[in-house]
């Protein structure tokens, strides 16, 4: 009896040992792959911009900052904050963008700003974490210059932040796919031409330009999707095959301004950032509404397509 038990124990230990070794080896491979991707060097050529300092341009820059949701991650005063703090995934920190202590404002050259915002890479040419530059890449040169001008004018705020800390689960999800958005640099065709200037208009074309900022959450096809970050609510279908199809332009604008749906349900700003979208001008909201109505699957395709 005793020896039989020993044999079972011996084999159990062997199997468990082999499994542990296998898991360690698999994680070794994932760790190596994630380190490679996180340390990949991107040789981008940042466009040379004349950064404006006049108050009219800075006001335009402030508006872009407000509608692009930079403050959702970098904080109201843009002094940065710990953006992801999850026991499983670890910590990701959004930088202090001011010229205060711990901020980048004093050290960044115009090219550094362009590299970070448009290309999603840091001063070391390695990918920035979580910074959604794939959404900012198509921003016109004029808009980008105004935005940087405004950022350079921010009052300094001292805020020294901790460093990132990616836990094994984050690395596994990063390599396996669900968290591949962790670095946006690899999703951008860095050689693509960007327009110098785009004139605001109440039409679908300008709406498309603005709606790029919605696609990170609502998906490339705007039909909604599950969110990769734990605790985040799935986004809604905002083509007219979703509830939006039954809403008027006015009702759509009320959601962007207040988070209140026509049925009275209050949407939480933590899920859908209406504190940011409320900053759109009415004409910009109308342009986005028109664009959403031209999307495939839309029942209103016939009436709104040119
Ligand atoms: C979804 C969250 C998120 C949004 C939205 C976002 N950022 Fe970031 N951003 C980050 C994080 C996180 C980092 C730090 C990346 C790193 O250190 O790897 C970062 C880094 C940066 C950097 C580089 C700073 C450095 O330390 O190298 C700049 C510049 C920047 N963001 C500007 C902006 C601007 C301007 C906007 C709006 C147009 C914006 N960000 C929107 C999360 C975000
Ligand atoms: C940070 C992620 C995020 C961004 C960015 C975002 N949304 Fe949303 N949005 C959501 C989520 C999540 C919901 C669902 C919230 C709920 O139902 O409680 C939602 C809901 C909506 C709704 C209500 C739809 C319905 O059927 O209830 C509209 C309209 C909408 N978003 C439009 C937009 C537009 C337009 C933009 C860009 C200007 C945008 N959103 C940007 C996450 C986002």
Automatic annotation (TrEMBL):
Keyword set includes Acyltransferase: no
Cytochrome c domain location: 56-155, 202-296
One of the Pfam families matching this protein, by short name: Cytochrom_C
Domain of life of the native organism: Bacteria
InterPro entries: Cyt_c-like_dom, Cyt_c-like_dom_sf, Cytochrome_c-type_DH
Keywords per UniProt: Heme, Iron, Metal-binding
Protein name listed in UniProt: C-type cytochrome
Source organism of the structure: Rhodocytophaga aerolata
């Amino acid at each position: 009896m005793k020896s039989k038990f020993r044999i079972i124990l011996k084999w159990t230990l062997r199997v468990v040992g082999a499994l542990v070794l296998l898991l360690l080896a698999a994680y070794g491979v994932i760790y190596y792959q994630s380190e490679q991707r996180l340390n990949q060097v991107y040789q981008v050529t940042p466009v040379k911009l004349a950064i404006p300092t006049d108050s009219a341009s800075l006001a335009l820059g402030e508006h872009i900052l407000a509608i692009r949701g930079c403050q959702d991650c970098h904080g109201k005063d843009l002094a940065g904050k710990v953006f992801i703090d999850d026991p499983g995934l670890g910590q990701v920190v959004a930088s202090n963008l001011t010229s205060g202590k711990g901020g980048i404002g004093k050290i960044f050259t115009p090219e550094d700003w362009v590299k970070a915002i448009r290309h999603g890479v840091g001063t070391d040419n390695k990918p920035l974490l979580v910074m959604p530059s794939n959404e900012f890449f198509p921003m016109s040169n004029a808009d980008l210059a105004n935005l940087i001008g405004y950022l350079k004018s921010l009052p300094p705020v001292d805020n020294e932040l901790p460093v990132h800390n990616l836990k094994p689960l984050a690395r596994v999800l990063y390599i396996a796919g669900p968290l591949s958005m962790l670095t946006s640099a690899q999703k951008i065709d860095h050689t693509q031409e960007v327009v110098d200037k785009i004139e605001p208009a109440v039409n679908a074309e300008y709406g498309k330009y603005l709606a790029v900022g919605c696609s990170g959450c609502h998906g490339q096809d705007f039909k909604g999707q599950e969110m990769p970050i734990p605790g985040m609510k799935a986004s809604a279908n905002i083509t007219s095959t979703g509830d939006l199809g039954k809403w008027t332009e006015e009702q759509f604008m009320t959601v962007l301004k207040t988070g209140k749906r026509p049925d009275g349900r209050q949407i939480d700003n933590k899920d859908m950032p209406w504190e940011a979208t409320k900053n759109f001008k009415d004409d910009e909201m109308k342009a986005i509404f028109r664009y959403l109505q031209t999307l495939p699957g839309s029942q209103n395709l016939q009436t709104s397509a040119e």
